[in-house]
Write a structure and sequence with these properties.
The protein contains 10 helices and 14 strands. By secondary structure, it is of the alpha/beta class. The structure holds adenosine monophosphate (AMP) and magnesium ion.
Length: about 325
């Protein structure tokens, strides 16, 4: 088994695997990443192969040291510096103009690169030991639920990755917030682990596209994503319990009455949206393994981390490619 508890020794081994151009899955505070040396195109190509990820979907590059910002970013302005100082390490990804050090495969041919400093001791130790930026998308097959435990990675991608570092469950549990700083004004590309409200306090004039917007507004972000294999539907207002269907339910809080669903998962008994985000993918993984015909999901308020939760649920419920 290539799943190993994260210790100083196993992190050194993982760093060597990265430096040899191979793949390591590692924990971050958002979700588990599938990492390769970011400055080597051939190593990054292995990420796309392992995930079955289309080449038009660019990768986020992780760094542990601000000096990499100057080396990877062609126009490192005051605003990027201010955001990095305020929110890094943390669940904010910044899209900035790239230098020639960043291979085109990483950015899907775009002139900009997405950069983040993760706030997780294992991720930071791995980056420091490897002495290189690490390109890492979520460690799941393309389009499927993101992994928030090492076991999720082992189940989904166990055979495609050289080593999985186990650092326990991810504290935030949804992917990073992505802010595009390459143009004016800055644009939110994906709501995520850093609440938009916190960003808006620092970036006064920013564009936040409407949540229901049917078109993908970030490169690589398709309408259907983060999806379990089981079909997902939002719980309609006039819901009638489906008599002949093996249905599951994902709710924010503990329901007041006993509902006759085959399986119910509760995101946060107290209705706390931060706790709900941390539990989102684990709840969906369990529902997806329960042999259901449909998973009904309840809407959550779109404030704080609720915005990221609703973004993931909308994509999970979107029509699937080819079906
Ligand atoms: P993930 O698969 O969670 O690592 O997220 C990667 C996402 O970040 C991609 O699907 C893009 O939407 C976004 N992204 C990465 N690089 C760029 C870039 N250079 N420009 C714009 N968006 C990017
Ligand atoms: Mg992903």
């Amino acid at each position: 088994m290539n799943l190993i508890s994260a210790t100083p020794t196993s992190i050194q081994l993982a760093a060597e695997i990265i430096r040899n151009g191979n793949l390591v899955a590692f924990p971050t505070e958002t979700v588990y990443g599938l990492g390769a040396e970011a400055l080597k195109a051939q190593a990054c190509a292995k990420i796309f192969a392992a995930k079955n990820r289309p080449y038009f979907d660019p990768l986020i590059v992780h760094i542990a040291d601000l000096s990499w910002l100057e080396k990877l970013c062609a126009r490192f302005d005051q605003r990027a510096r201010q955001l990095a100082e305020k929110f890094w390490p943390g669940p904010l990804t910044m899209v900035v103009p790239k230098t020639d050090l960043v291979p085109d495969i990483v950015t899907a041919g775009l002139p900009n690169v997405a950069l983040r400093m993760p706030n997780h001791p294992v991720a930071l130790a791995l980056l420091n030991a490897a002495q290189t930026p690490i390109a890492a998308p979520s460690a799941n097959p393309f389009g499927y639920l993101s992994p928030t435990t090492a076991q999720h990675v082992a189940e989904q991608l166990g055979n495609q990755v050289d080593l999985i570092l186990d650092g326990g469950p991810c504290a935030i549990g949804v992917e990073s917030t992505i802010l595009d700083l390459s143009g004016e004004p800055p644009t939110l590309l994906r709501p995520g682990g850093l609440p938009v409200e916190s960003l808006e306090l620092v970036v006064g004039n920013m564009v936040v596209p409407k949540a229901e917007s049917p078109r993908p507004h970030a490169p690589g972000q398709l309408p259907s994503h983060y999806a379990p294999r089981t079909p997902v539907e939002f719980l309609p207002g006039d819901f009638v319990f489906p008599a002949n269907k093996k249905a599951g339910l994902l709710v924010l809080q503990t329901p007041v009455e006993n509902l006759p669903f085959f399986k119910i998962e509760i995101l946060s008994p107290a209705g706390d949206l931060t706790e709900a985000a941390a539990n989102l993918f684990s709840c969906l993984h369990r529902l997806d393994r329960a042999g259901l015909e449909v998973i009904y999901v309840e809407r959550v308020p779109e404030t704080g981390l609720g915005r990221a939760i609703m973004d993931r649920l909308r994509k999970a419920a979107a029509p699937r490619p080819g079906g």
